[in-house]
Design a protein that fits this description.
The chain is built from six helices and two strands; from the N terminus they run H-H-H-H-H-H-E-E. It is mostly helical.
Length: 158
């Protein structure tokens, strides 16, 4: 992450703006972005200074204190999606977090979510040899997989 501009530069831009120069002219004069100079001018007017604000923030997970609940949920139902994990946490424990929070928590705890074996095959990639396709131009027969509870038809090589 880049560092903030120096306080010396900020002070010189603020002085130029308070002396009557426009933010755009000050930006051109000091070699900074126009948007940056405009934001500094707005801050100077609203807050009376152009000091850099604190960078970064709290990087602790909101799920850290609920670690056991999340890991128990995953252990009992390992094929849950991130959205389903979020829903279960809200329903069972009243914990409201974002999908990315759940994802980062699982990654930090080396938990990987695997797709079910019944994920349908790609519809954009040919999954069987061309010579096996019927020559009449008809599409190959469809079947339902015996090992998958999905109701979606799946293509089978002929």
């Amino acid at each position: 992450m880049p560092a903030p501009y120096s306080q010396d530069l900020r002070s010189r831009v603020a002085w130029a703006i308070s002396s009557g120069s426009s933010a755009r002219k000050a930006a051109d004069r000091f070699g900074i972005g126009i948007g940056t100079a405009i934001r500094w001018a707005q801050r100077l007017h609203a807050e009376g200074h152009v000091e850099a604000r604190a960078m970064g923030g709290d990087h602790r997970s909101r799920l850290t204190e609920h670690r056991e609940a999340v890991l128990t949920l995953i252990a009992h139902q390992p094929d849950l999606t991130l959205e389903e994990i979020r829903g279960a946490l809200v329903e069972r424990h009243g914990i409201t977090v974002g999908r990315s929070t759940v994802s980062r928590f699982l990654k930090a705890h080396d938990v990987t979510l695997k797709k079910k074996a019944c994920t349908p095959p790609s519809s954009s990639v040919l999954t069987w040899p061309r010579r096996a396709m019927p020559s009449s131009g008809a599409s190959p027969p469809l079947r339902r997989s015996a090992w998958c509870s999905s109701t979606r038809p799946r293509r089978r090589p002929t």
